[in-house]
Design a protein that fits this description.
two-stranded antiparallel sheet; Chorismate lyase; Arc Repressor Mutant, subunit A; alpha+beta; 6-stranded antiparallel sheet; single chain; 10 strands
Length: 253
């Protein structure tokens, strides 16, 4: 099989674009191995150098990772903007991915001292605890454990199925709670045994650990959530600006 030239577009770019389309269309899922340099060169009647360049471009784009002696594997990362507060469901939809959830735990528990501080609750007060495995296009990307004061959203677990519904949407539409902003702490660590099983990671893989308190329009805490994100499938980004500080040239002139 040969690749048809589109004008002056180099062959390695065309092969890279073809592989990228196949990844985006699900022909190759996260964790799948791509054809080797030899297989690509034979399939598309190009040199191994051309095939190598195509795979290198894919790696630079963050879509794949090369494991020495094993091959090139799809590792497309979901990119989250740290400046915007959105639900997981909406975040995935915005990226053209199909969100789904598996409920691991949904129950009421008494608040302990740590949770009372975060949620402005009383010790022993009933809290909603909702733990879910979050998936994008069927691939596990995160484990989220949300805590809310039951008094703010009575009967929420009896009335809703959070395997299919968005928690943020339910809070807004059924309880009139609009989440406006959040404080979040992020750290990198190794996954523990249960997380490795649920997230289907390879060995002692890194994860992104997040803790967040989300507030409503009155600046009252509504939700405390602990999340564990698959380090190979998720990344965070933000934009940093210089607010009135002297430029480097001015500072050292």
């Amino acid at each position: 099989m040969t690749v048809n030239l589109n004008g002056a577009t180099p062959l390695y770019i065309q092969i890279k674009n073809l592989l990228q389309r196949q990844i985006e269309e699900g022909v190759y899922a996260v964790g799948d191995r791509l054809p080797s340099e030899r297989e690509l060169s034979e399939t598309y009647a190009v040199s191994r150098m051309t095939a190598r360049q195509a795979l290198h471009l894919l790696q630079q784009s963050g879509l794949v990772q090369t494991q020495v002696g094993k091959g090139t594997y799809v590792s497309r990362k979901i990119d989250q903007d740290l400046q915007e507060l959105t639900s997981f469901t909406q975040d995935m939809v915005n990226r053209g991915l199909l969100p789904s959830s598996r409920v691991l735990c949904a129950e009421l528990r008494p608040a302990d001292t740590g949770l009372t501080t975060r949620l402005s609750a009383q010790v022993g007060e009933e809290l909603v605890v909702l733990s879910r495995l979050r998936l994008a296009n069927g691939n596990p990307v995160a484990i989220e454990v949300a805590h809310l004061r039951h008094a703010l959203c009575p009967q929420i677990l009896q009335r809703h199925d959070f395997a299919t519904e968005s928690l943020y949407r339910v809070l807004q539409h059924d309880y009139g709670i609009r989440l406006m902003w959040a404080r979040q702490v992020i750290a990198a660590r190794l996954a523990v045994a249960d997380e490795r099983t649920l997230l289907n990671t390879r060995g002692h893989a890194p994860v992104l650990s997040l803790e967040r308190v989300t507030y409503d329009e009155r600046d009252q805490p509504v939700e405390y959530v602990r999340s564990c994100y698959h380090g190979e499938r998720y990344q965070l980004h933000t934009v940093l600006r210089n607010f009135g500080q002297p430029s480097v040239d001015e500072e050292f002139s």
